[in-house]
Amino acid sequence: MEGKEPKKEQKRHQQKHSGPKAERKKIRKQLGTPAGDDERKRNPKAFAVQSAVRMAKTFHRAQDLKAKKHHIPLVDRTPLEPPPIVVVVVGPPKVGKSTLIRCLIKNFTRQKLGDICGPVTIVSGKKRRLTFIECSNDINTMIDLAKVADLVLMFIDASFVFEMETFEFLNICQVHGFPRIMGVLTHLDSFRNNKALRKTKKRLKHRFWTEVYQGAKLFYLSGMVYGEYQTQEVKNLGRFISVMKFRPLVWQQSHPYVVADRMEDLTDPEMVRVDPKCDRTVSLYGYLRGTYLKNKGQVHIPGVGDFAVADISFMPDPCTLPEAQKKRALNEKERLLYAPMAGVGGVVYDKDAVYIDLPGGHVNQEQEEVCPTTELVQSLIGTHTTLDAKMAAGKVSLFTGAAALTPGEADVRTPGEPIWDPETQRERRKAVFTEEEDDDDDDSEGSRALRWKEGLQQKASEAFLRQQRAAPNLRKLVYGTGNVSVSVRILYFFAVNFTDKKHRADGVDCSRFDPDAARNWDLEEMLDSIRDCFVTGKWEDDQDAATLQKEDEELYGDFEDLETGAVHKGKAGKQKDQAEEESDDDDDEEEEKLMVDDETQKNKRLEKKRRLKECFDTEYDDGDATYFDDLKEEMQKQAELNRAEFEEVDDETRVQYEGFRPGMYVRLEIPSLPCEFVTKFDPHYPIILGALGASEGNVGYLQKHRWHNRILKTRDPLILSLGWRRFQTIPLYHIEDHCGRHRLLKYTQHMHCGATIWGPITPQGTGFLAVQSVAGTKTSFRIAATGVVLDLDKSVTIVKKLKLIGYPYKIYKNTSFIKGMFNTVLEVVKFEGASIRTVSGVRGQIKKALSTPAGAYRATFEDRLLMSDIVFLRSWYPVSVPQLYNPVTSLLMPAGQKDNWSGMRTVGQLKHDLGVRNKPNTDSLYKPVVRVQHHFNKLHIPRELQKALPFKSKPKQDQPKGKTPKDLQRPAVIREPHERKVAALLNALILVHNYKSKKAHTVQHAKHKDFLRQRSKAEEDKLKRQKEAKKKLYRMMGQKEKKSQRSSLKGAPQDD
């Protein structure tokens, strides 16, 4: 700018090129020493620890962050082809679960799916498959799917925020093993204000983190376009699902289970026709998950019951992973979709039937154009009559223009067909012979041959050729049609030389027989042609048995007979001795070459050892290696050993040793299933087959604890989810006292308590949850309690408190006779020495039983009792656990009512349904209190005691005073009429004065209040003026100081 001087250039720093500092820099540069190391050596104090406390805190924090990332390493038992990952989509009704599943399926497979019925399996990547299952609002479905889920997509309606189903499912997951959970916010397009949308997102995200874990992933689906979510958002969600890692859950890793995606009824139709309610034999299909499954075991189907498996077999994988792993993306043929319950899956072959999936439904097939590929199948589906019925209704005309004949009119019978004879009333079979004259035959016998015997060899040859042409050519299938060089080498115990032979793949197949090349084996030449193929024939010189034996002796030489100890020398050994003498001269020449070769080999071995030692040092001399790293490495080695054990064995043999491994597509045949399972089957409800351990099929006592703050009553039926099972039982709640006694609780308290039930044996440490009812949806939280199995022992005795009451009927100082507490002398004898007490707190002890009355006894107390005292004895009575195990059979309910299963009702529900009111305790009713007036006797003090009392305390001073005598009473003043007028006037004047003074005081108070208000206002104005003046003064002082500083920098003289 024009008014300012150009900025002066600052003087640059000139580095020293001579002197001690420059010399040190040159030396350091030549030696290659880093600048930091030199500074640490030159000035160690600058890099020393400044604060030991701060250093300790920093170190501890770093170690805490490192330790938080650690988890207990587990052996990776995942097979090479793992089963599909179970993705459960959970949420309240009408939040968009089915829509998102359809969008994800379209994103992965480029296919559209209508109704989401049952599990839907897709191939999502080169090494991963996904199984989508939609979870309905039924609590039974929530409990079952939480046990098998690997990933949970939890839907949250942002316009309505969290609903109770979300927290219920989270609580179920906390008990049965917490899978990976991802939140999905929907209905975000209902927000018109961006600020409200951001606040809602933030609030829901932090609440979701509180329930799951800090940093849990929450996806936002902003809106819908043409009934589907936006493509980019669905694609991002699919990417997260495809790359997510999963930690194995303890229950799933220790129990094999199958999520059935197909069900077939194998029951004999005749049995179903005779008895429609007979037990059914059903085959269930699905991927095996968890651990290895043995055949002929016990399984539990949640919602049905426990069953024995008749047979297990593995089937071809209907949704296989792609073979090539090096490509970046899947092609269209590898994007498979398998959902049999939804009608998707192509052609499926199994031992029960063949299932063909047709594109589109069968409803509007008449209007649609019939495809050539499906024309035959659709025509078979549209057939309503059988083939014999069509033949019976058909007509045939024998000659052109003749009338058509029905089967009844035409008497056409094959030879030998039975004929009904009306006279004899039986079927008669007629023997028919077909003869034909042979005019060209000049034989003297003149016999007539049967017609069917002519050309038998030609007919058989033609039939054999047709059969061979229909069979596939194995050589072409295996090796193709080009020239293939096949190298065969078989490993025997002895070394045998083989020569590689080349075959033409399109040559004559040796497995086929050519009928044209027929040979007459009666001829001697034909027999001589194959005579040398047998052991007795003449072989070639190099294949003769004697020649081969000589070669073996030359190859193996000497050997020792281990039984006799004799040493046999072969011809090769003798020839070797002769050859050694002749080759002494040649060995001297070759020794020099061998020495050079040995030196080279030795150097190579040393170099190899040195490289191995360096690898070893770099791997094991790491100072940061910890016990956790060693443990992880040990687990990794164990996992590799497990995989390599049966890697080379085929599946049929491998299954016999280790059972069916996870990842196989298996078929389980289960007999004796209730007929309702088939007749009332609904594919929207999942079918899970959980294998039971050796002892998990038994029923016994369990102990549980850790109840939530729900008030539950002892002996009220409760529905438990324990292991694979859901069942109803009657628990007894109890708490352990300090003395080890398990005391019965009538109601659960707001703290941890125990519960003992009669139910199936489940391993200790297994989580469980309890609900009071699974029927319908309630407004309140449905999870009544959660806990864990503690013990499987029946020896725990639960006791309840019992008070026995008695009354004294004779009292002798501290000894009393008590009756009414016991009924017999034997009962008293059992309680001799027991502690008793009265309501007033006097303690005593039972001494001895009395003969009369029955049940009376003698007791001693600390003090003398009264006849009105009540004596009670505190005792403990053992309580037996009710043996009720009622499995929840929700899958046997009719369609639409599977979420309305109800078992045993509580006492409160029974009284409410039957209209029974509790009879109140008469002692607990409120009654009018009638106080009895007590008359106490006068205090009597003996004369001797009165003499010792002080004067003021003597009884004579306490005598009441009498009335004042009339002569001492003040006389009443009676005013005159004039005095009364004067007194009335004075009262009126006093009243007026008081009124005026009160009014003046009120006015004065109001004036003073106004004055105080004005004064406070003036004070505020004064303070405001002073503040403004101070700010103005400080501003001027600051400007003056800045001006003086600028002047001093420029070197100008400063003004005062």
UniProtKB/TrEMBL annotation:
Residues 1-43, 409-447, 566-601, 944-976, 998-1056 are annotated as: Disordered. The lineage of its organism: Eukaryota, Metazoa, Chordata, Craniata, Vertebrata. Residues 9-29, 998-1008, 1024-1034 have a biased composition (Basic residues). It is found in: Nucleus, Nucleolus. Belongs to the TRAFAC class translation factor GTPase superfamily. Bms1-like GTPase family. BMS1 subfamily. Gene3D superfamilies: P-loop containing nucleotide triphosphate hydrolases. Keywords: ATP-binding, GTP-binding, Hydrolase, Nucleotide-binding, Nucleus, Phosphoprotein, Ribosome biogenesis. SUPFAM superfamilies: P-loop containing nucleoside triphosphate hydrolases. GO terms for biological process: endonucleolytic cleavage of tricistronic rRNA transcript (SSU-rRNA, 5.8S rRNA, LSU-rRNA); maturation of SSU-rRNA from tricistronic rRNA transcript (SSU-rRNA, 5.8S rRNA, LSU-rRNA). The gene is BMS1. GO terms for cellular component: 90S preribosome; nucleoplasm; small-subunit processome. Residues 423-433, 955-976, 1009-1023 have a biased composition (Basic and acidic residues). The keyword Nucleotide-binding applies. Its main location: nucleus. Residues 82-247 form the Bms1-type G domain. This is Bms1-type G domain-containing protein. It comes from Oncorhynchus tshawytscha. One of its GO terms (molecular function) is GTP binding. It holds the Pfam family AARP2CN. It catalyses: GTP + H2O = GDP + phosphate + H(+). Residues 434-444, 579-592 have a biased composition (Acidic residues). It comes from the Eukaryota.
